[in-house]
Specification:
This protein is an alpha/beta fold. The chain is 51% helix and 14% strand.
């Protein structure tokens, strides 16, 4: 997709979101970067504008998990006459631990960010794209969305929602010339595990880099694919999961996660 207007990246201050900003800037996209950390966003903005002359980069410090925040963001971009033709719904987080022991408000915040903010942002920005008959959206899900994940149950469920929602949206949007791609990374070298806590998936030997994940994501999007699983091992894992009864997956994954939980407690 050739740069036309702005690409809006949520969760842009680090990890996969930051790497999307860097790779899109290298392609000539002007950017709207959204995250909670104003300092990190401003540092990234300065870096990108110095490295890529001619692009515009805006930094918007906003917590999208707060009800009404996506609408506030949309109103800001509309008021500034910024035409968003690529939306990267990347913001999200997880929490590792026993469901009944994790703070209830923390889990609600996870649902609000991983699901509600993504859906609201998609609705707000998709309508103008459909009217213009051009644009695109990349939603970041996870291989966790393909399996029950004891001790990370809410996070996995939110990502299962993103997968299903994005597939449905893909079919609707393509009728109007808009591309939707859902991307499913596995463990990636980001700050995710600092927030979620140590798990069996936080072994650095299993991880892709953010640069690898984003490069595969953009390649799938460029090829108009509705769906991508990044990393050869992750694709093999998802294929294998389709052949195993869900009860067995739950038992094996639960045992592994429980062992990891006990080792860190």
């Amino acid at each position: 997709m050739q740069p036309q207007g702005y690409a809006l990246v949520t969760g842009a201050s680090s990890g996969i979101g930051e790497e999307f900003a860097r790779q899109l800037a290298a392609r000539g996209w002007s950017l709207i970067l959204v995250a909670r950390s104003q300092d990190r966003l401003e540092a990234l903005r300065s870096d990108l504008m110095f490295a890529h002359m001619g692009i515009d980069v805006l930094a918007v410090a906003l917590d999208l998990s707060v009800p009404g925040a996506p609408a506030e963001l949309f109103q800001r971009t509309q008021a500034a006459n910024l035409e968003v033709n690529l939306l990267i719904n990347n913001a999200g987080f997880g929490a590792f631990g026993e469901f009944a022991s994790i703070d209830r408000q923390r889990q609600r915040q996870m649902i609000d960010l991983n699901i509600a903010a993504l859906v609201e942002s998609a609705h707000l920005y998709l309508q103008p794209m459909m009217t213009r008959k051009r644009g695109g959206m990349i939603n970041i899900a996870s291989v966790a969305g393909f399996m029950p994940l004891p001790y990370c149950a809410v996070y996995a469920a939110t990502k299962a929602f993103v997968v299903s929602f994005s597939w449905g949206l893909y079919e609707e949007a393509r009728q109007h010339g808009v591309q939707v791609t859902v991307v499913n990374p596995g463990s990636t070298e980001t700050n995710f595990f600092k927030v979620a806590g140590k798990s069996p998936f936080s072994s650095r030997s299993r991880m892709q880099t953010s640069a690898q994940v984003v490069a595969e994501s953009l390649r799938a999007f460029d090829r108009h694919r509705p769906f991508a699983i990044t990393g050869v091992s992750n694709r093999s894992l998802v294929r294998a999961l389709a052949l195993v009864p869900r009860k067995w997956i739950t038992l094996v994954v639960g045992k592994t996660m429980r062992r990891a939980k006990m080792s860190t407690s």
